[in-house]
């Protein structure tokens, strides 16, 4: 048997196995290190700070849990949120994340490590990413072999699609959820392979943890039943499937109902019905199998078949009727909008308005997954070639997740693991084929000495991603070569699956070198890409902004915290702050003041009220503000700095949401110019110019430019020379770069006048008396 | 005597107006019946139907249907408006005569378009009743424009217009017989052919093709194009949309093709070439497909650099 390059022949098989497993452990440790390290850009470039919006609430809740204990947290009623309604936090939150950090915090304190709770929260996501890499390794190991597992672990460790939601400081549910997702899937595959009720139960426990941690648990709730259903349809029903699914479903569902926020949903809503239906179907099929194995009569089998089909149809009809009757709740809007993509924009603008619910354009896919995006279809095909039960899972997962990721940007997160797994399978098969030193017998007579040049062949793959000393399992391989070395025996042992395989193999060292070198270059490029994307795009805390000075140094823009601390230091503790819902959690977390609406968008009417205040004129808004005890209004304005995520750009959504509740009072078209443009300059429509949002954003803005034309740098428009005036609110605070502007709502005029005439009076203007009031009228 | 007649005249004045209003109303009802629910307006009847003393409401479509005006949306929307008006004409006479659907073409009433300051079409304006029991409680009688942002479909129009009519417009989408029959025929053909296509359906490679196709299309932004309704290509013929968060329809096919080609190259390397038992041919294929990967990947990176200008890396191109 010719070999492309020589292998050491004086190694015992025990040495090879031991070295391989040591290398695996070292590689996994290094991958974990890389996964954690690449997520620390945010801490190094900025500071140890909680990012964005939702994490601020999670952080606040965790602080309550850490300082006051679990029961206080469980019964926590937060009167400062959704003023004046308040929010029952314990029952409206997925507590898994907070509980996890609480446990870690208490554990560290029990070990006499006085770590601040904030640091626990900031570093939770990177820590869990290491666990995710491990879970992905275990999962992929079940698909192919440990070397593919290591590749998959390395991919998920640094792939931007996952880093985007798990950098240090991004303290959100997704931080731990992806680990739970992968580990639940791993347990499911393991349970299915072995028919083990134990692994089914472990899957159920992790499913429970997932339910407690993230709303995306519904993905698992539907993926596993879908997998089971496809297996049944393909005639692959087995007792292993029955044991695995039944133990997972029964325990997992009962456990998930213990989470108060979920409650009875698993038996009442459509999202969970698929799991229940497949559970029922499995029982029927299992029963039919049982009877068939005991009864021989042909007629009876026919009857049984008809009976099973009839029960299935009856069950489906019962579901339909119960849905129609309303006993089973229909799809919730968020999930429904995944299928009927026009639905959300029309009926639930609050869902459509969130930027992470937008559809995904292809550059986002490429940015987040780079070369994995075109490698993973190859991996799926490789799965099709073998098509064991667990490969079906990867295939279904890949198809479903790529659809979901296309519909919503945020669901890229669920696509990322399967892309890593499938590409790892593909790449590992490629490397297996081309690193394997054995050459096939030459059948072709015309061939000369092409394959014999073994002298110069180096051993490629001396880096961490793959190592040639690992035993390779290639299923359809050449007949066992008569090799004397231990490695050769191991390779031979792993190949005795097929009795009559087609001969295959690679000739020559140059071809091997070429392909392996190309693969290494792809991998190296991937590492550079991931590092660049992570450091430049995904590590900004968005609470603190950064820009570059002309000399290249970093300039930190800290307007948000400046303003929130101003509120904290200068206002009464119970003064209500009105802002658009995006900033609710941040105000509560950093300024500690009651807010009207926040990122927990449970009450559409309340949000629409805020939208109406922003979209109406001062006269209309003032009574609403007073009725809600609002003392301060906070708007975000990016026109001076060119910060595009400001309130004027979000304004149309406020209008739309308000219009959904008050179609007669707020109308979207009236905010456009007659030509249908959204403008803030001279041509802006009167409704636009009289709206609170416009006035509060551009109040005194023109003065900054000292007589020159004021320019809005976000919208690139020139503003009118004379800016808007305000009668019912006073400017209270404007941050350094004008990003945050805070206004104080005036109390009622002591003389009972409206503020407009009171202001006019104090400025010495005479009241216009164009027409005498119509007191007298001719009576006919 | 003089003063008496004056008072009489004064008293009778409202009746006169009421009389003329009645006459106008009667005329409108007749026109509506004649026009299958839609009144075709000219500047004069426009003034009548929008008379400031009206005790009826009206939804008026201002449009430009003439081919020369090249108003595609007008022609798209006109059938929806007529369908809704026709549905309204089927309600009981008491309700029907309180609300009118009318249409005014640009070529019939340029004056009106100028008067209303309209520069685009189609426009639908709802004129609420000014007098009588149906006058709005808040006293707002200014015409209310219909918001086209939710599309030109008749069902959304009917839903929106129902807010201004005395009773809900009994509009329901016509049953799409063509679609149902196609579906039924397809299903029938499928069952008949089932025996013949069963081997195809049971082949894993059929399903592999379907799955890969779906994944490729989805990851090249097909759903983005569908949801946002992006055009296939720009007006000036360029097929790459500027900007990282945007794309045209043609990009989907190009990117899906590139991804597919790259995946295919890897599959050749993995699944086909090892079985090639002639060393020279095998070597040629290895070099060929490795080269394909390098070149196509470079092209992909260069397209990505067009979309994301700040991307610092490039390969051979």
Strand and helix layout:
The complex is a heterodimer of chains A (780) and B (317).
Chain A: H1 13-38, H2 41-45, H3 54-68, H4 70-74, E1 77-78, E2 87-88, H5 96-110, H6 117-143, H7 146-158, H8 160-163, H9 174-194, H10 197-213, H11 217-233, H12 239-256, H13 265-268, H14 273-294, H15 298-325, H16 333-339, H17 343-347, H18 349-352, H19 362-369, H20 372-386, H21 389-407, H22 412-435, H23 486-493, H24 509-536, E3 545-548, E4 554-557, H25 559-570, E5 576-578, H26 584-591, H27 604-615, H28 618-627, E6 630-636, H29 647-661, H30 686-690, H31 692-698, E7 711-712, E8 717-718, E9 729-734, E10 740-745, H32 755-762
Parallel strand pairs in A: 5-6
Antiparallel strand pairs in A: 1-2, 3-4, 6-10, 7-8, 9-10
Chain B: H1 2-34, E1 38-40, H2 43-49, E2 57-63, H3 72-89, H4 93-96, E3 99-105, H5 110-116, E4 123-127, E5 144-145, H6 154-161, H7 177-202, H8 204-219, H9 222-228, H10 249-272, H11 279-307
Pathway (chain A): Protein modification; protein glycosylation
Main location (chain A): endoplasmic reticulum
Domain Oligosaccharyl transferase STT3 N-terminal (chain A): 23-422
